[in-house]
Each structure stands twice: as C-alpha cells, then as structure tokens.
Predict the structure.
Amino acid sequence: MSSSTQVSLTGITTTGTPHLGNFAGAIRPAIAASRRDDVQSYYFLADYHSLAKTHDVAALSVSTLEIAATWLALGLDPDRVTFYRQSDIPEIPELTWILSGVTAKGLMNRAHAYKAAVADNEAAGSRDPDKGITMALFGYPLLMAADILMFRATHVPVGRDQKQHLEMARDIATRFNHVYGDVLTVPEPVIDDNTATLAGLDGRKMSKSYNNTIPLFIPAKKLRKLIMKIRTNSLEPGEPKDPDGCSLYSIYRAFATDAQAAEVRQAYADGIGWGDMKQRLFEHLDAILAEPRERYDALMADPAKIESQLHAGAEKARTVSREVLAEVRHAIGIRPLG
Ligand code: TRP
C-alpha cells in the first residue's frame, strides 16, 4: 500500500448485552483510539460470527441493536470512523469463500475454540468427536480473516483470546499472496495486556459466560441493587480491609483517576464498611453513566435511526470492499471473459 496511514479494524460479536467489563476493557480504549487523526478506524458488528455461538433469533437482533446503541451513546462518532454491520457487506462472505481455497483444513483443526469443543466431546465420552460442532464454529477464523483482509487492516486490536485468530489471518493472507501475487495486506495484532479486567458480582472475572455481569445501561435503581449484591468478605466496619482482590475496588479502580483510587485505598485502610463502599461505588459509576445512559435510552427508542446510521456506514465501507474484492477476483482469475 502506498499510503502510510494506519488502518485499525475490530469487530464485536453480537451476543449479549454490553456490561461494565466490556466498557473498561474494549469499548473505552477503542473509542479513544477512534479520535486519533493518524488512524483510520473500522468498527463493526460481527453478526455472522454470532451464528457460531447461538441460534437464538430474537437475541441476535436485540444484541445487535444494544451494541450499536452502546457504542454510539458512549461517543463513537460515525463521521470519523467507519461503523457498520458485517452482514451489510456482501463482499465479506464472498471473500471468505475465496480464502477457503488457500486455507488448509489442518489450520482450522488447530483453532483453540474448535479444539476445546472436540475435547469436551471426548471428555463426555461421545463416539463422534465433532458432535454438535457446526461449520460456522469450525470456519470462524476464516470469516474473521475475511473481515480483516477485506479492508486492508494494518492493525487489529483484540483481546489475548483472539491472538491465534490473528495469526491465522496472517497465515491466510501470506498464503494468498504467495499463490496469487501481492494483493492482501498482512495485519498486525495489537494486544494490550494493560486493559482493565473487572471482577464480577461473584468475584470471578466479569464475563457473560459466568453470568456475573453488571450491564452498562440499566436504570440507576437497578444499578444500585446489583452493586449491593457484589460479594465481599465478612469484615466489619472499622476493620482495615485489603483493596487488592476486592471486587468493589477492582470496579472502582477501572473508572477512577489515580487520586480517587488512592483516596479509596485509604478508606479501606481506615476500615470503611462494605455498605458504605458499595454506596460510594454506585454514586461514582452513576455519575459517569447517567449522561450516556440518557443517550442510550433515546437511541434504543429509535432503532430506525441506528439502522440508517449502519446503512450509511456500510455504504462507506463498501467503497473499499467492492474495490478490494474486484482486485482479489481479478488476481484469482475470475475476470470478464471479453
Ligand atoms: N472474534 C472476535 C471476538 O469474539 C470478534 C471479531 C470478529 C473480530 N471479526 C473480527 C475482531 C475481526 C477483530 C477483527 O472478540
């Protein structure tokens, strides 16, 4: 590529409702990055990827709406970035198929998610190691490679759990270029090990799969109720407490300045009661979330507006994806005959 602008791209699978952990770990840094002038950013809703995880029809569309509304409410500016829905870009599944022609089945066999599903079957004593495993789960890394290569992404910020998928995308691009000439851009993973991980209601990592999350945009009253449910130990008010390893502190820390965090650490040392600390956490979070919550509620009440924003994003994205696909098709010999 002649241009030296960094092209950053990341996808969000449309399963579940965004929670505080997603905000601190993924959404907040992504929105901050989207404000940089030297980076061209693509953010998309990976709705086709969700088919590898669930067949819940209603949940797919609700989650798509919730995630789009969340990103917009938190300040993603669709004029600065390209924000779209994967299924609005028909070139992506086309590229997926083309890439399947240069992708070894053995490469997919090595994907962690697929291997884990096979291991579960074996542990359950199933005679078929592939029992219940769909082609969508098996081919997941291939679709993800197409997402990335479609827009000539140079940088892909992802969680550590996605690192292998990025390596596969690099392998596939390199293989394609080896066979057909230098057409695709080989992407670099960007893995930030400093991103905040929050503890959930039960003290384990906040995660949809543990069912221990605090959704971002629930009404203030519900937010308070959930915070009151966070598990703590049985130390009494007045007894000094350890902030490290405390769920309340881990959540507070992710949304506080260093000075605020130091103040709360002092309060722990001084023996703040759990009830008081929970109230303090609630008030702190509510002050941060109140404004975006209003924007979120307004967006959720107007899904047609989100739909049209996604369409505009897809149009913008397709100016690139059409061109790249045309180049790819030409390179592989799918060309006008005369
Ligand atoms: N697999 C990613 C996840 O579960 C989501 C995703 C889909 C993605 N396509 C992508 C991330 C392309 C980065 C680039 O988190």
The chain is about 55% helix and 10% strand. The mean pLDDT is 95. The longest helix spans residues 303-332. The pocket of tryptophan is lined by residues 9-11, 13, 46, 49, 144, 147-148, 156, 158, 162 (CB under 6 Å).
